[in-house]
């Protein structure tokens, strides 16, 4: 199976809202919600993708030829590549009932672990979603990262108990999900968190705590103050705030503020190994890719995920070789050009 076959098969299973496009750039689905699109006029997801394309890579092949090492160390774990599968929830509502949240995570988590990376899993109103996700992570000896929504503190404690039982090596909170209506209507209230509330959650986590949804240097510093071990520069794929900045636009200033003090991960419109290279050159330690992994699962199950991981890895290795970087640490800002 190759990637084109994955796309062709996905189009027969993924429903009518997602088009399983050759390049997942947000254009065809735009403001389709429920579905894979973005909030409001729908251009934030498109902008996420476009801003990575405006960055060019600087070729330099006058260098010693060496073996390419794409390995990443994160929180005591070794990964073959500096990218992760992102959390996706409400699979049946946004795509089709060919998969549920439970069966999707079962496939994704195991396939990622078998191919040298890890998957972030989603969360939802249905408590069985987190329970099943953490069971899938437990089945691969903790090589996965559960993502907990910013519920009220009592609900978060219940979710963290499942995380601890799974043996997950880290846990994330998508703080940007504060914009989701079902959180805003909870009693007691859920949603945005103060620095002190985040600090309490980080302490209760018991494993490295990742805050997802950072879009300013100020927010990154607040996450650091709260004791987060890592952040994910993310605008939730444009799904929670219309006309938000693209992640590629804000990554350099965030890296300047907290780079070297905490691990920096970025998502939003990253679609190729070349894009991954650009993100690392701008200061990220790793990236997260979400929507295309949905296509990979629908298009080929575990084999589809393997094909997509191998595609990204080959593109990243080729870019590194052609720019004279043979380890991730050798990728520098001088290797890209921002227009």
Number of helical runs?
Answer: 12
How many structurally independent domains? 1
Shape category: globular
What percentage of amino acids are in beta strands?
5-15%
Pfam family, one: FMN_dh
Protein name: L-lactate oxidase
Family: Belongs to the FMN-dependent alpha-hydroxy acid dehydrogenase family.
GO molecular function: FMN binding; oxidoreductase activity
What would you note in describing this structure?
The chain is α/β, with parallel strands linked by helices. The protein has one domain (3-338): TIM Barrel. The protein contains 12 helices and 12 strands. The chain has helices spanning 3-11, 43-53, 91-94, 101-114, 127-138, 153-166, 181-184, 195-205, 217-225, 247-258, 273-281, 291-323; strands at 55-57, 72-74, 77-79, 83-85, 119-121, 144-148, 171-174, 209-214, 230-233, 263-266, 286-289, 336-338. It is globular.
List keywords for this structure.
12 strands; two-stranded antiparallel ribbon; 8-stranded parallel beta sheet; 12 helices; globular; alpha/beta; TIM Barrel; 339 residues
Summarize the structure.
This protein is α/β, with parallel strands linked by helices and 339 residues long. Helices cover 42% and strands 13% of the residues.
Topology:
Layout: H1 3-11, H2 43-53, E1 55-57, E2 72-74, E3 77-79, E4 83-85, H3 91-94, H4 101-114, E5 119-121, H5 127-138, E6 144-148, H6 153-166, E7 171-174, H7 181-184, H8 195-205, E8 209-214, H9 217-225, E9 230-233, H10 247-258, E10 263-266, H11 273-281, E11 286-289, H12 291-323, E12 336-338
Parallel strand pairs: 4-11, 5-6, 6-7, 7-8, 8-9, 9-10, 10-11
Antiparallel strand pairs: 1-12, 2-3
Domain FMN hydroxy acid dehydrogenase: 37-339
Active site: 236 (proton acceptor)
Keywords: Flavoprotein, FMN, Oxidoreductase
């Amino acid at each position: 199976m190759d990637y084109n076959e994955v796309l062709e098969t996905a189009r027969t299973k993924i429903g009518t809202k997602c088009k399983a496009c050759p390049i997942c750039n947000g254009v065809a689905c735009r403001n389709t919600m429920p579905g894979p699109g973005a909030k409001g006029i729908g251009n934030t997801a498109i902008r996420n993708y476009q801003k990575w394309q405006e960055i060019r890579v600087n070729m330099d092949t006058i260098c010693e030829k060496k073996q390419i090492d794409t390995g990443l160390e994160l929180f005591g774990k070794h990964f073959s590549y500096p990218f992760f599968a992102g959390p996706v929830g409400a699979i049946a509502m946004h795509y089709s009932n060919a998969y549920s949240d439970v069966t999707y995570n079962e496939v994704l988590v195991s396939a990622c672990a078998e191919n040298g990376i890890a998957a972030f899993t989603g969360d939802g109103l249905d408590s069985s979603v987190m329970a099943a996700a953490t069971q899938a992570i437990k089945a691969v000896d903790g090589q996965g990262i559960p993502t907990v929504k910013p519920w009220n503190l009592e609900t978060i404690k219940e979710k963290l108990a499942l995380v601890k039982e799974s043996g997950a090596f880290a846990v994330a909170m998508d703080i940007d999900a504060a914009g989701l209506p079902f959180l805003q209507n909870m009693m007691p209230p859920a949603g945005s968190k103060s620095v002190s509330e985040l600090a309490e959650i980080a302490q209760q986590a018991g494993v490295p705590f990742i805050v997802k949804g950072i879009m300013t240097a100020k927010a990154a510093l607040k996450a650091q103050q709260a004791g987060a071990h890592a952040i994910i520069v993310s605008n939730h794929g444009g799904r929670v705030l219309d006309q938000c900045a693209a992640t590629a636009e804000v990554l350099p200033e965030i890296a300047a503020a907290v780079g070297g003090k905490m691990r920096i991960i970025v998502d939003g419109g990253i679609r190729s190994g070349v894009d991954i290279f650009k993100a690392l050159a701008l200061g990220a330690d790793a990236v997260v890719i979400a929507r295309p992994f949905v296509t990979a699962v629908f298009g080929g199950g575990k084999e589809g995920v393997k094909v997509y991981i191998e595609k990204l890895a080959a593109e990243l290795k080729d870019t590194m070789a052609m720019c004279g970087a043979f380890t991730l640490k050798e990728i520098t800002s001088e290797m890209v050009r921002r227009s």
